[in-house]
Amino acid sequence: MSSAMSRAIRACAASGASRRGLASVEAMGAAAKGPPAAGRWAGRGPGGRGKVEDGARVQWVFLGCPGVGKGTYAGRLSRLLGVPHIATGDLVRHELASSGPLSKQLSEIVNHGKLVSDEIIINLLSKRLEEGEGKGELGFILDGFPRTIRQAEILEGVTDIDLVINLKLREEALLAKCVGRRKCSQCGGNFNVASIDIEGENGGPRMYMPPLLPPPQCESKLITRADDTEEVVKERLRVYHDLCEPVEDFYRARGKLLEFNLPGGIPESWPKLLQALNIEDPDNNRSATA
Ligand SMILES: [Zn+2]
To answer: What CATH number matches the domain at 3-167+264-277, 3.10.450, 3.40.720, 3.40.50, 3.40.1350?
Structure first.
């Protein structure tokens, strides 16, 4: 990514992404557009699978509803490919914990349970990309961005996204997973008491996801987030789909969307995801159980 990219993203955010602002960043991006991303990605072929030097060509986006585990898979891929995993949720938390210029504004938004605006997210992202450029980072895996069609348009105008991976999990598994989340009030550890074992769909294999149980010392200290009830989770999913389906359509229309149905937990899903991405895991056994 070029410093032009983060400048353009910032300029776009500053202009409030007016039609004019968008048009000008689109013009900037047009010159840099290469061949269709899916072709470029598929063109890696067996010779150059998942090597670190491929990092330069990884400009990926992870989509997926809350609770699907996209942070986990994006994080694993970023370590494997040697590219930064940039999660907008982390950027927000990092800024909140800092004394940066946006932290006061952010804490007010978050404390009132409001959504962080496109402008703030774009500002944080562009700051992060600039810092990465300074350190010589190549490529990126974005997680949590773009979340809206407007963010997708801004991104499209300034850089070439190679691939958008849309992680999906059957809704009954997703609900059980969200409702089963627990946090230890003492050490902050995250656990999941849901034991998912559901019949396969259309003759497909059974889906089994074991619980992630806490160690004995945490058992009596587990708390459930007030908003992890079935009703709230369903509402969260509905809001996500309303917001994100246009983003999926946007990338589908450009031939960049890879739909990936998670077949179960990490041990089943990780090798299949690598296969779908034509990446060879040099240490498959260890990764699958980590
Ligand atoms: Zn604990």
So the answer is: 3.40.50
